[in-house]
Amino acid sequence: MKRILLSAACALCATIAHADGALRLGMTPEPYMPFTSVDAGGQWTGLEADLTRAVCAKIPEGCEFKQMAWDGLIPSLKENKVDFIIGAFSVTDERKQVVDFSTPYYTEGTSFVGMKDDDVEPKLIDAADGSGKVLSEEGIESGIIGVQSSSVQANYVAAYLPNVEAKAYDTADNSVADLIAGRVDYLLVPDMFIDGFLKSDDGAEFEVKLEVPTNPKLGQGVAYAVRKGDAATLDKVNKALAEMQADGSLQKMVDKWIFGRE
Known about the structure:
By secondary structure, this protein is an alpha/beta fold. It contains 9 helices and 14 strands. The strands form 4 sheets. It has a 5-stranded mixed sheet. A 5-stranded mixed sheet has the order 11-10-12-7-13, sandwiched between helices. Helix 2 crosses helix 8. The chain is globular and about 55 Å long. Residues 22-261 form the Solute-binding protein family 3/N-terminal domain. InterPro entries: Iontro_rcpt_C, Solute-binding_3/MltF_N. It holds the Pfam family SBP_bac_3.
């Protein structure tokens, strides 16, 4: 695994690194499709890979790639080890307190997933904070919900399902593995991530029990993050994204990776 990840880093470096003064991009090789993965040839692939190559090609200084664990991306940004980061980061009010976000490049939904033969029907109730309909603890209070640590889904469970046991994982793939193994009863995950699993042989016994309504805790789209107050870097990233929105290339990438349309 280490050898594959290192080769992926070198492949990406060769693609987007330019001269001294390049913006330092923090990215994780942890698989999270359709956003990001490392293929059998050691190449970074997925929506965020294609997007980042295009964005960095539009930034005059280019980009220097730095890979790290997903939960180390924001700390590395705050410690000035990188200039901007990508990792399917949902824009939330909590995160806005510590980082600045680019224009969102995608807006995702959240799914509550369990076994098909589980006859529990998740219910919605009015949130006490006035944010709309949220998942109720009724019927699922004796189960265990798997979430990715530091994710918006983890924050949602903490806010609205405090009496339901939650198990946090370093990667979304590991939460799926424990769902298959029966170590958790449910998952609260982004819909685009779980879609591929549910279509696979391993996912045949599972289904989406509920499409969770939009909620501030679940974010306001997916975006790059830059260091708080770094207006120069934010402007460069947003300018590149605006050009891609205007010429249609961003939508083509979303169509390819999210909706499977070439």
